[in-house]
Design brief:
- The structure is a single chain.
- The chain is α/β, with parallel strands linked by helices.
- It has a single domain, classed as Glutathione S-transferase Yfyf (Class Pi), Chain A, domain 2 (Up-down Bundle), CATH 1.20.1050.
- Helix content is about 55%, strand content about 10%.
- The chain has a four-stranded mixed beta sheet, with helices on one face. Strands 5-6 form a two-stranded parallel sheet.
- It holds the Pfam family Tom37.
- This is Metaxin-2.
- Keywords: Acetylation, Membrane, Mitochondrion, Mitochondrion outer membrane, Protein transport, Transport.
- Involved in transport of proteins into the mitochondrion.
């Protein structure tokens, strides 16, 4: 805990331009936002095999000193053990509420992103398979893509999402955004004036949804219906990311010019 944060701390994710998918991009951006809010510098390193390098098989993961930690929850705990916390100022009731909203985001937005990527046939064929397998030669590219698709579909079946239509999934996203919009209200952050890990998580997912070009705009339109959520994303982008060097920022593609996932 007494060790200072090293200057060479690194965050690993898949290749930004041609490989990374919506859900992993959102998760990576959430971790970057959290570390920015803690004022802890991190270098973003893109690797084709980042998913296979990760101890949990999920991205992003951070390499700090001799420690490797993946995903936002464990990274928050790791950073807290080093003496940095965004939610120390909250009371127990607020902490419980924050955790409940983080569960909501993971259960609704992250699951919807995975569903869209791997269960919507048009998106799978036009975006997911070409991007996911892009670093690898044929037939490995297809084998790895189908393997991942089978994994995600098995998860969807386990949580009762396999039988959902795209319209039902988009309705879930809308309900999640409605709940987040109600909680945020006119505050700058979800717990008033200081950001917490909930703000980092929500920003990661909403900003990525708003700035990612998919087959249709239906997903981003659900977020755009809530002006306080889009203003929230702009505020965090301006406060924590603008002025960063292009490669150290996940926001190289600005919302003005939507980055293409094709």
């Amino acid at each position: 805990a007494a060790e200072p944060w090293p200057e060479n701390a690194a965050l690993y994710q898949q290749l930004k331009e041609e490989q990374i998918l919506l859900s992993d991009n959102a998760s990576s951006l959430a971790v970057q936002a959290f570390l920015q809010m803690c004022n802890l510098p991190i270098r973003v390193i893109c690797r084709a095999n980042a998913e296979y390098m990760s101890p949990s098989g999920k991205v992003p993961f951070i390499h700090v000193g001799n420690q490797v930690v993946s995903e936002l929850g464990p990274i928050v705990q790791f950073v807290k053990a080093k003496g940095h916390s965004l939610s120390d100022g909250l009371d127990e009731v607020q902490k419980a509420e924050m955790k409940a909203y983080m569960e909501l985001v993971n259960n609704m937005l992250l699951t919807a992103e995975l569903y869209l990527q791997w269960c919507d046939d048009v998106t799978v064929e036009e975006i997911t398979h070409p991007r996911y397998g892009s670093p690898y030669p044929w037939p490995l590219n297809r084998i790895l893509s189908y393997q991942k698709q089978w994994e995600v579909k098995r998860k969807m079946k386990a949580i009762g999402w396999a039988g959902k239509t795209l319209e039902q999934v988009l309705e879930d996203v809308d309900q999640c955004c409605h709940a987040l919009s109600q909680r945020l209200g006119t505050q700058p952050y979800f717990f008033n004036k200081q950001p917490t890990e909930l703000d980092a998580l929500v920003f990661g997912h909403l900003f990525t949804i708003l700035t990612t070009q998919l087959i249709t705009d239906e997903l981003s339109e659900k977020v755009k219906n809530y002006s306080n959520l889009t203003a929230f994303c702009r505020r965090i982008e301006q406060q924590y990311f603008e002025g960063q060097e292009k490669d150290s920022s996940a926001l190289a593609a600005r919302s003005a010019k939507r980055s293409s996932m094709r």
